[in-house]
Amino acid sequence: MPNYSYKALDQSGITENGILIAENLKEVHEELKNRHLIPIKIKESKNRFNFSLFTKISSSKLSLITRQLATLINGGIPVDQALDSVAKQIDSPLIKGKLTNIANKVKAGFKLSESFEDHPESFDRLYCALVRAGETSGDLGMILEKTSELLERKSKISQDVTGALVYPFVLFSIAIIVIILLLSFVVPEVVSQFSSLNKELPFITKTLLFLSSIFSSYIFYLVIVFSGLIGLLSIRIIGFELFRLKLDKLLLSIPIVKNSLIDSDLSRFTNSLSILRSSNISIINAIEISADTVSNNFMRKQIKNISNRVAEGESLASSLEKIPAIPTLVTQMIENGERSGRLEEMLDKVSLYLENKFQNSTKITMNLLEPLIVVFLGMFVALIVLAILLPLIQLNTLTLN
Question: Among 57, 224, 296, 312, which one is most buried in terms of CB atoms within 10 A?
């Protein structure tokens, strides 16, 4: 639905600006009238790029909104009033407009889950399915609390990974820039002083001069740009989805990357599956919905395929065993949960185990990566110094002789 920016006067004569998401101008006027606002100017806001990235609510903000809704609904406040109350506390006009639009649909008689489905860029299938389950069971507040916890854990993992990668990335970028500058400007100037020597330069010096000539050449950068264009064209020809599928399959074969991807993806999958099953959603639908939380396309496709085997009567654990990437310990814990009749509880334990494992392995990897980058930079600078010193030593030897 289109966005409408408005400028209006309230009952005190104070000007208010904001954004509303509505079907048409008539709906905007009705909403402003309900808010006791006098419209001065209403204009449709068009997004030329139409990227959902600019309209999506982040996981951290969505978690906070969901937690506030859960608290208000558990306190006996009607859903539409709870939405209005949360919307008033939001600073972002875009998010406020979305919540107001959802509240209007609820007031018009639509279910909360149906209203959320109008904004798939912010409220995904899992979120809407959980809200629908809460409406069906009559315990919407409790389901929203669980959904908020799920979003908080997802947001925490993303923040931990991003925070852990920032310093190594900055350090590595600086190291590469320093090396390129040294090879492009410092090494040629210094080593050129030895060109008058009628003696062959050391191997290290000649190697660095060769690298320096490459980095100083415009042809090198043209080759990089040309290779990038060929790569983009190849992706366009074979199709982005197929390329992502093959790339994700390749990532699952790289030892360190493989373990981190599997742990983070399976943690989200098992946590989502646990909440959905606790909300009395069928195992088939729960698997298909939870599979959307898996970021690796290749593994997501494999997990979605097991729903057919489960529908035919095969157990969840034995179906997951047929996916090579899933660790044996995970399938064994799920099998124990199925045998004991405590599958949801066991899935939650698996999720916590994998999340802790992912965080610990990420922390160890990042702690090792930082000194490795420093050592790499130090060794390269040492090679440059050695490449300059060796000709000097030769020159001194010739002088003494």
Answer: 296
